[in-house]
Specification:
The chain has 283 residues and is of the alpha+beta class. The protein has one domain: Hypothetical protein, domain 2 (Endonuclease III, domain 1, Orthogonal Bundle). A five-stranded antiparallel beta sheet has the order 1-5-4-3-2. Strands 6-7 form a two-stranded antiparallel sheet. A hairpin with a 2-residue loop joins strand 4 and strand 5. The model has no long low-confidence stretch (mean pLDDT 97).
Length: 283
């Protein structure tokens, strides 16, 4: 177990922010997630203090980067134009949301699945794919401050090789619909090495965007989501129906990202979360 004081982190909001599809709220102070082939539970133990169900080495090597702990989010919020009333409210409402740096292949497949889908339905397909061909994960014996996991069994998201070996009819049975051929092609291209996460990470934003939109079934929104949530390209600004609604209602049809060249994606997350949750106000 590792206990760390982390400013600007609200694990419940992060779990509800729609970035990742395998992070779930257990109760008012615990979330669990499956990522990088591991199960992790996070417990809020006091103000700004969290316990992680992993070793200190694993926390340093995986979860600190996953939670983007090297970035000063308070300074980012302070950079918001005070005359932008909507964004100021969104940032305040979404305080504690950080951009998760997720595994490249899983993020790519998840956002291919996400096209014209609700978050619960995306989650269902991702979980079904993992159970069909992912490796079973051993959940550690958890003691206080952790609680009982939500499920009896957990599966890692499959590797490209595992997913490319899944029979196409089995893939279709996961509810991915017309996206099945896109997923199958992506798995083949990652498994063959045509698409290599390390090589992609070395590309400029422009070249990475070209590489991703060159994939079968990947358009502008999905490419920008992959760039933001897997490659930490926080200057990207994905536009889905929620963001388009915000732009139309509050920004005359277009949000100007130029004041936020390196943080537009973070602003996008504040806006996305605020627009979806402001009326139910879970915080």
């Amino acid at each position: 177990m590792v206990t760390v004081k982390i400013p600007f982190l609200d694990i419940l909001k992060v779990a509800d922010s729609g970035q990742a599809f395998r992070i779930k709220v257990i109760d008012g102070s615990h979330v669990e997630l499956v990522a990088f082939g591991r199960y992790l539970q996070i417990a809020k133990t006091s103000e700004d203090t969290y316990s992680f169900s992993c070793s200190e080495k694993e926390f340093r090597e995986i979860w600190a980067e996953y939670l983007d702990l090297g970035r000063n989010y308070e300074a980012i919020v302070d950079s918001i134009d005070a005359n932008d009333d909507y964004l100021m409210k969104a940032a305040s409402f979404g305080s504690g949301i950080r951009i998760l740096k997720q595994e490249v292949f899983e993020t790519t497949i998840s956002y291919i699945i996400s096209q014209r889908r609700s978050i619960p339905s995306i989650t269902t397909s991702v979980e079904r794919i993992s159970a069909l061909c992912g490796r079973k994960i051993t959940v550690p014996d958890l003691k206080a401050p952790f609680v009982r996991p939500l499920c009896k069994e957990y599966y890692a998201f499959p590797t490209p090789e595992e997913l490319s070996n899944l029979a196409f009819d089995k893939l279709e049975s996961t509810g991915v619909g017309y996206r099945a051929p896109y997923i199958a092609r992506a798995a083949e291209e990652f498994a063959s090495g045509k698409l290599d996460p390390s090589s992609l990470a070395m590309l400029s934003d422009e070249d990475l965007y070209k590489a991703l939109t060159g994939m079968f079934g990947v358009g502008t929104k999905v490419a920008n989501c992959i760039m933001l949530f897997a490659f930490a390209r926080t200057g990207r600004f994905p536009v889905d129906v929620w963001i388009q609604r915000i732009e139309d209602r509050y920004y005359g049809g277009h949000f100007d990202c130029s004041p936020y060249p390196d943080t537009a994606g973070i602003m996008q997350q504040f806006m996305f979360y605020y627009e979806r949750r402001k009326d139910s106000a879970i915080n």
